[in-house]
Amino acid sequence: MTNSTEEHGVRINVSQLQKSFGDNEVLKDVDLTIEKGQFIAIVGKSGSGKSTLLRLVAGLEQPTNGTLLFDDKTIKKTDASVTMMYQDSRLLPWKTVIDNVGLGLKGDWKDRALSVLQAVGLSEFQKEWPGTLSGGQKQRVALARALIREPDLLMLDEPLSALDALTRTEMQDLIEQIWRDNQFTSLLVTHDVREAVKLADRIVLIEDGEITLDLENPLPRPRDVTDERLVALEKQVTSRILEEEPSTSH
Ligand SMILES: Nc1ncnc2c1ncn2[C@@H]1O[C@H](COP(=O)(O)OP(=O)(O)OP(=O)(O)O)[C@@H](O)[C@H]1O
């Protein structure tokens, strides 16, 4: 799909979104517009509601209240292709790498699968079993499996947090390059503020189910994590997260 001239990306508009599980109000009145092709990172403490927001946007959960629009259409009517990448690659161990990439696809997908495997640097591994791959390679296959669907929206739920630091940096560069080549909209949930400032155009902080910071990241790409402007941005977000320690635990 990296050679495709077709336009990808979707504009997302979340308005007064609210989600409760029983008495637990997890998201309170969230408003967020993500422009087509934008890369957004959602950061925040554990339990603040990041994954819930992602799952609502992905249509895996229904909101208690509020609206969710894709290119100004309600989510039920959207034609947009939405794909998700998780911390765990979720590959089927009894299928080869290439069959995992094409899983669930109809028609002749082998050439496209090879092309996306090439884009993630794994074409030589097409006939291998997932069990023989490293954690980083498995995540590359998961990325290829997302890419073959030519996503308008790629959702990334802590996709790199189980990887070692070096592999993680390599994967960040790969994700950024693939996003730039394909221009889909990206929504990344991460605990890692450095990862957020390296990859995202905007960093959104969620605290107790509310957006409390929405920061533009104007730094040119590709970004160097030792660049003092990036370090300053990282400090700004981190200190904001740490500002208010909860007085009670629950
Ligand atoms: N299906 C569910 N049923 C009941 N409660 C849920 C459900 N999903 C999430 N929650 C609750 O919603 C709150 C927010 O969870 P969520 O996973 O969105 O947080 P998070 O910010 O992504 O946390 P983490 O960084 O630890 O993944 C938590 O209190 C969690 O227990």
From TrEMBL:
UniProtKB keywords: ATP-binding, Cell membrane, Hydrolase, Membrane, Nucleotide-binding, Translocase, Transport
Instruction: Give all residue intervals belonging to the ABC transporter domain.
Output: 12-233
Question: What Enzyme Commission number does this protein have?
Answer: 3.6.3.-
Please report the name of this protein according to its UniProt entry: Sulfonate transport system ATP-binding protein
For this UniProt entry, the molecular function terms from Gene Ontology, in alphabetical order, are: ATP binding; hydrolase activity
Q: Which domain of life is it from?
A: Bacteria
Recorded hits in PROSITE patterns, A to Z, give:
ABC_TRANSPORTER_1 (PS00211), ABC_TRANSPORTER_2 (PS50893)
Its signal peptide is none
Please indicate if the UniProt record lists Nucleotide-binding as a keyword.
Answer: yes
Q: Which SUPFAM superfamilies does the UniProt record give?
A: P-loop containing nucleoside triphosphate hydrolases
Under the heading Gene3D superfamilies, the entry gives: P-loop containing nucleotide triphosphate hydrolases (3.40.50.300)
Q: Which organism is it from?
A: Geomicrobium sediminis
Q: What EC class does the entry list?
A: hydrolase
